[in-house]
Design goal:
CATH superfamily of the largest domain: Phosphoenolpyruvate-binding domains
Mean pLDDT: 91
Number of helices: 18
Low-confidence stretches: 1-12
Structural class: alpha/beta
Helix content: 25-40%
Radius of gyration: 32 Å
Strand order of the largest sheet: 1-2-3-25-26-27-28-29
CATH class of the largest domain: Alpha Beta
Distance between the termini: 47 Å
């Protein structure tokens, strides 16, 4: 343990303690240079303009392999840099501290600046240069770019795209997991047209779908229609339940928001305003509706109690208290295609077929478990008993209790107390499993032909290894797309663990960046670790001078509902530590874009990466008499 570097004498330096610090730092320096030597083959493969950045990454990773918290405290006590902001120029930071300590102790120090890949000024400048190479120049008064995921409407709505461009969108993201190539091309063309009109440079990112593991199709439930009135908090009906009736062969009559079913035409022709329609619903409860309106296409009924209509339901027309006629019903909507799950339930994840809810089979003591298929059946043979599985962005979780040809038997361990509903096309995460899946599917390879022709950037979803990165680079070279910038989407635990090798592989491209896909990362690494993981990703990318996209759920509530939450405002401000912040689509995306633009402009005057900028504070004016 090093004592305080300050002596007990007034203002005198403890030379022995400073010399001990020098010895520790020199050992750290040796480790950093040794890491550079070990990574020599990977460093030789990067493009020349990335070389200094690649070397700095190896130095920084070697430094962070050691726990230097005690050393930092001692350096801060001496009054020199604690190496807490060494990301962009790791070796130069260490050498600066060593030089000062040598000066204090009277020891000779040789200038090593010629051996250092980057200095205190060049390191941040390289990050700025690489960000411009990937994203283009920043917005006029905002250094952090804004990426917006385009909705499907952007393929046909010029006004929507114009609002996004005028609102400050710097990169338009097209998600190739949705829509089709024709729609992607239409979106890209509209973005470029509106950017030219506005005199701005807006780049287009096409995000490959990748091997996304999702739930497959689920069978719809039996036809049933629920109609219910609107009630206030005290149970008083404030608006009746409305039901439209139309003839079987066509037509429609409905009030705003009312469902509609079909009935026999002859019966419908006898209905008059003021008549009563009686039925016995699926629960055996009698319900009555009043005929509110008649029209050429049918009639509208109004009632004051909830009713469940099924195919066996019959409607009785009554007038002046007497039965007039009855009719069967048709065209009832099927129940939603869902599986209902509770804690301790069993769920079978199958390699194919159609999902089904749990059911009681004759002659069995236990009900047949619910089942859902998965879209990538090959992964089922790569998991083991006891590993965790999550569904629908972590809303439902379980543990795999059995594996086999029939699929995975899962015990549900995490969901809402009252149960949760699982639908088709929801994500599946296997955070404990080592999955061997190519980052590029056959669909992705086909889509690259469109991407190369119409995009500036390509997103590699579920990037997990350097081999994945090189596979993308090979396909781009084959298609003449070497000039495209690539963005590695880090959204799995394996991708996080293999980040350094992926960064070095990405430096074989002209321009490269990383997207922190925090939604899947939270599930893969654990919600409790997300803050730590995203911090480490930011550090490593800054050391590599690789620009970062801060993604997933930024101002999501505002974009979807028009009302932000307090927590997401702080989250958006944190995004200013990246080079780009991504907004997802929503009906209020324009409002979210405006607010994010304002937040980023404000925060860039207070913080650059993790360094506080001491702008003059005018919130608390102080005069000679104290706080005004």
């Amino acid at each position: 343990m090093i004592d305080n570097p300050r002596d007990n004498g007034a203002g005198a330096w403890n030379v022995a303690a400073c010399e001990a610090l020098i010895d520790e730092l020199l050992q750290l320096r040796v480790a950093m240079l040794e890491a550079e030597r070990r990574f020599r083959p990977q460093l030789d493969a990067v493009q020349p303009h990335w070389r200094a950045s690649a070397i700095n990454l190896t130095h920084y990773l070697a430094m962070r392999r050691h726990d230097i918290r005690r050393l930092q405290a001692q350096l801060a006590w001496v009054g020199v840099s604690s190496l807490g902001r060494a990301e962009t120029h790791a070796l130069a930071s260490l050498d600066k501290v060593l030089g000062l300590l040598h000066l204090v102790t009277g020891r000779r120090w040789r200038d090593h600046s010629a051996e250092e890949p980057v200095g205190a000024q060049r390191g941040p400048a390289l990050l700025v240069r690489h960000a411009e190479g990937l994203f283009g120049p920043p917005h006029e008064s905002r250094t952090v770019r804004v990426m917006v995921t385009l909705p499907s409407e952007a393929a046909v709505d010029d006004a929507l795209v114009a609002r996004l461009v005028d609102g400050g969108m710097d990169i338009a993201r097209i998600n190739c997991a949705h829509d089709d190539p024709a729609a992607w091309v239409a979106m890209a063309r509209r973005v470029r047209q509106q950017a030219r009109r506005a005199g701005r440079g807006v780049r287009v990112l096409m995000d490959l779908a990748g091997p996304k593991l999702r739930t497959g199709p689920i069978a719809s439930g039996p036809p049933v229609l629920k109609v219910r009135p609107r009630r206030d908090p005290w149970g008083t009906v404030t608006a009746p339940a409305l039901l439209g009736l139309r003839p079987v062969e066509g037509g429609a009559a409905r009030a705003q928001g009312a469902p509609s079913i079909a009935v026999e035409p002859a019966w419908l022709a006898r209905v008059r305003v003021g008549d009563t329609v009686r039925l016995v619903d699926a629960r055996g409860l009698e319900r009555q509706f009043l005929v509110r309106r008649c029209a050429a296409g049918g009639v509208v009924l109004a009632g004051h109690k909830t009713a469940y209509l099924v195919p066996d339901t019959r409607l009785e027309l009554r007038r002046s208290g007497h039965d007039v006629a009855t009719t069967a019903v048709a065209d009832l909507p099927p129940a939603p295609a869902t599986v209902r799950l509770h804690r301790t339930d069993r769920l079978l994840v199958t390699p194919g077929g159609v999902g089904q809810p749990a059911a009681v089979a004759s002659g069995r003591r236990r009900p047949r478990p619910a089942r859902v298929p998965c879209t990538l059946p090959q992964v089922l043979g790569q998991v083991r008993r006891g590993e965790r599985i999550w569904f629908d962005d972590g809303r439902i979780g379980g543990v795999i209790r059995r594996t086999g040809p029939a699929g995975l038997l899962v015990e549900i361990t995490d969901c809402r107390p009252g149960g949760a509903t699982l639908r088709a096309d929801k994500g599946i995460n296997l955070p404990d499993s080592t999955l061997h899946l190519p980052a590029l599917t056959d669909k992705d390879v086909d889509d690259l032909a469109v991407v190369v022709e119409h995009a500036d950037l390509v997103g590699l979803s579920f990037a997990q290894s350097a081999a994945d990165v090189r596979a993308l680079q090979d396909h781009l070279a084959r298609l003449g797309g070497d000039a495209l910038g690539i963005i590695l989407k880090v959204e799995t635990r394996r991708g996080f663990e293999h980040l350094p090798e992926m960064l070095l592989a990405a430096m074989g491209s002209r321009a490269a960046g990383v997207m922190i896909a925090r939604g899947d990362l939270a599930i893969e690494c654990g919600f409790e670790r997300l803050a730590e993981v995203q911090e480490e990703l930011l550090w490593a990318c800054e050391a590599a001078h690789v620009p970062v996209v801060w993604a997933t759920q930024v101002l999501e509530r505002l974009a979807k509902t028009g009302q932000p939450s307090r927590a997401e405002i702080t989250d958006a401000a944190m995004g200013g530590r990246a080079e780009c912040v991504m907004l997802n689509k929503g009906p209020h995306i324009g409002d979210a874009l405006h607010m994010l633009d304002d937040i980023l402009r404000r925060m860039q005057t207070h913080q650059a990466k993790k360094r506080s900028l001491l702008r003059a504070l005018r919130s608390w004016p102080v005069d000679e008499g104290g706080v005004a």
